[in-house]
Here is the input.
Amino acid sequence: MRPIGWGLILGCVLLTAHRATVWRSDEALWTAAVRVTPAAPRPLINLAAAYARQGRWAEAHQWLHRASDTRRLTAWDRQWATRLHDFLCVTAGFCCASSG
Amino acid sequence: MRHRWVLLCLLGLTGLAYTPSLGGDYVYEDSHDGALPADDWSGWPATIGSVLSVAPSYSGTMAIYRVVGHLTAMSPLAQRGISLSLHLLNGLLLWWIASRLWPPSGALLAAGLFLLHPIQTESVAYIAARSELVMGLALLLALLVAERGWPMLAWVFAASAVVSKPAGGLVLLLVPLWAWWRRLPTWTPTTYVLWGVACWTPFLVALGIWQARPLAWASPEMLGGTGAAWTRLLALWVLPWGQTIDHDWARVPLRVGVGAGLLWAGGLCWAVRRRESWWGLVTAWSGLLVLPRAIWQLGEGLHEHHLYAATIPLSLATGALWAGRRV
Here is the structure.
């Protein structure tokens, strides 16, 4: 292959290696997703769930609240957000009036 | 000989590029498909039998999850290693096909792009997306034997794609499209007729008829959204910025979707008129891949891993361009 071909391949190696890092954990995956689509509720809810699994209740509550603020929740999102809200309420005492 | 070393180097670079993902834990829906509980194992025949009876259209993929999970005590590293190995094998097969078509530099670039393009990370690093890799393996094997002039064996491989995922049934359309586009001499009109007749059983499996899943027609919004989403995903091949596991397709305006649909229809007409063109094959191939979403309302939206089968002609077309062939 000519140098430009190798340049193309090496560019792909770097981008792929960079993208592969986000697949190490839920937190990295959904943090990257929120960066790309900050107004989409599903990445926000899943990021909140990732924090809840680590016991980081305050951060989980904060991201779940932000997901509710988007007001674009589908039926699936609402169901998932309600379950997470109930879990945070019972386990960590983070209760609010509505989960979305 | 030198080209084989370059190919080995590309395979090694692929392994290196995916190293950051290998040490991670299960993520998102991996725990639905990949991380099955260890005590779910009930012996080889019973476990494989249960996989076949519960989900025939996913049985191949599910069987690999369960066997690897059982043998490696549910290690995510092992599951990711299997996905990476399947991708490396697919890259090798693509190189094999490409090297029958063009000089080595074009074949190597096609294989390199297929192996290392960042759009592939979702299919390779995400354990739950393994069905794309299994479908890709069946498809590439079918194309390889079709190129060698064995249509019956190509049918066997193409039909086996339906055990990867329901959309695997599309392989039964993609292989004759390839043969027709390439004007393969062993494919006579009788071959196409027999191929079509023999496709019914695998199609029924692919459609999930055995699971009695109700299907609804796609709405205009769904159609428009799919057109726009598929166009955007293909654009990621040229500019792989802004990748995400969850594209916000709900924000795509309907007029953008209608525009994308019209663009596709025009592209398809152009592709059929220029049958010798590699980009024409890419357009026709991608059109077939998106066909089920143009007909039925499917539960799952479009994701980057749905592009895996489309990257086969995309890589080959880029390799053709590199080799100075008509594209």
Summary: The two ends of chain B are 28 Å apart (CA to CA).
